Request: fold
Amino acid sequence: MLKKLVILLILAGCAHSQNTLETQVILADPGAGQTREAHEAKGQKYMITTQGVYSSKAAKKMFDMGGSIADAAAAASFVLAVERPQSTGIGGGGFLMYYDAKKNKGSNPWAYDFREKAPINAKQDMFLDKDGKVMAKKSIDGIYAAGVPGMVAGIVDFHHRFGKLPLNTVMAPAIELANKGFKVYPELAKALEFRAPILGRFSASKKIFFNKKGEYLKEGDLLIQKDLATTLSKIAKYGANGFYKGDVANKIIAENQRLGGLLTKEDLQKYNVVVRRPVSSTYKDYEVFSMSPPSSGGVHVVEILNIIEKDNLKEYGPHHPKTIHLVSSAMQASFVDRARYMGDADFVEVPVMGLTSKKYAKDVRYTIPESRALNKMWAGNLDPFLYQKLSVKNEHDETTHFSIMDGEGNVVASTQTINGLFGSGVVVPGTGIVLNNEMDDFSAKAGVQNLFGAVGSDKNLVEPEKRPLSSMSPTIVFKKGEPLLALGTPNGTRILTCTALTILNFIEHELPLYESVNAVRYHHQWQPDEILVEKKGLPEKTVKSLMRMEHQLKFEDYGCRIQAVAKNGETLHGVSDIRGRGYAVGK
Ligand code: DON
Reply:
């Protein structure tokens, strides 16, 4: 009898430990050696999370001076352009979601699109050689890789509409930081080392990012950007004209001509910001608003959530093999659609309503086996165009990220980028502007992969003035009409899966915000046919279960850095991803 009881207790113990193993949440390791206090903050008046200490502090300063959330967002954007020249800047572009608690009440947030555009002289085959082969480097390194920058137009326009403080006040912290300089931090040092061969090719790039001895700057060296400070001062004085017209524009065009690029004065003068209707959907009791095309981000964040909405994943937990199997399969299915249907909707027909419809998601879900990986040849056979009309019109009418909320319920979530590290590597002489390499986000040829391994169709081929397909997913989640969560991240195609996972962690698994942001993540993008799991890994048992389901697993760290702000009653809670350098600050 006693023996039986002991066996039962042992079995119960095993069952329990198996359960905790599969349901426990594994957190990523901190990456930048900062304290938890730097990454997490609480307040009631405002909350800011950015990937830069100076940027968050500049946004805070604007609030403390009586500025609006738009002043804070503009200040953060321009400081980020100085503090993170490897990932964003006035030579790039981005997206910004804005919810104005008064003007948007009862309706959708606005989706600001200041994505780079292809030059007017761009040609579909500009990245192909005479035999039709892709010249991959041409869309990554050097002047040819640069699209028409949109960041200045976007942020100045946004600030003009919603800011309370003058533009020169808002830009002062950026100008000061560029003039005074700051010490190169480890993330920046790594990026400099990686891109030194390209930066070293251009004397204006060398002038800033290399020392007098001709060596690229290292950790702890002072990075001063005097020319950038002068350009920023011109923007502070003349608004967007300080960039798109006059002296700065002339310098951009002169360097283009010297290097044989395609940008013209007309490109700069014609650049236009577009205020779009965001992609929207519901997830259970929540409403999700995210970026619409030319980003694929919003469509696929919504698609992933829709596909697994009925699965009650909470029962299993975020790192249970069943959860990982279903969510990664939903990711895989979404990436098939990304490769087939996504592009700039101003140029090609994109079935946004079909791809984000509940019926489509339900039918995709039927194709996912309960405990076996989707076959690697699986490419779906549903036509989202057939679901366009079936969808209840979304129940609504309709590579850096920062998130800001204030106590009045206003929200900004913005992702900005120059694409690859240091973009094209070209600094325009006398301006400090690092030009983007966003042209690589086009498909050089249908079916060919880009820098992030993304495959595109003819929908994403280069066309004059078209915007390249993005994955950036600034997102705002609402509950009962009130903003609950604002988030986003850099990291190419991984952006949309990191965003979807964080939303699931927070609203489905009901993890606290810190754990939601910092739990180990995984990513599937159809090609390659594998689940990429962060190096920190998963319990062996979970890995074995997934392998039994015929999933291929690869363990590697990837660069998402979620910046999130959530509202709980009166409290604003900010978390900046512990994997990277970031700063959460509030009051
Ligand atoms: O728009 C996109 O999807 C890419 N250009 C974003 C690049 C990015 O996130 C780089 N960051 N690590």
Residues 87, 399, 417, 419, 438, 441, 470-472, 490-492, 495, 559 surround 6-diazenyl-5-OXO-L-norleucine (CB under 6 Å). Residues 64-275+425-442 form one domain.
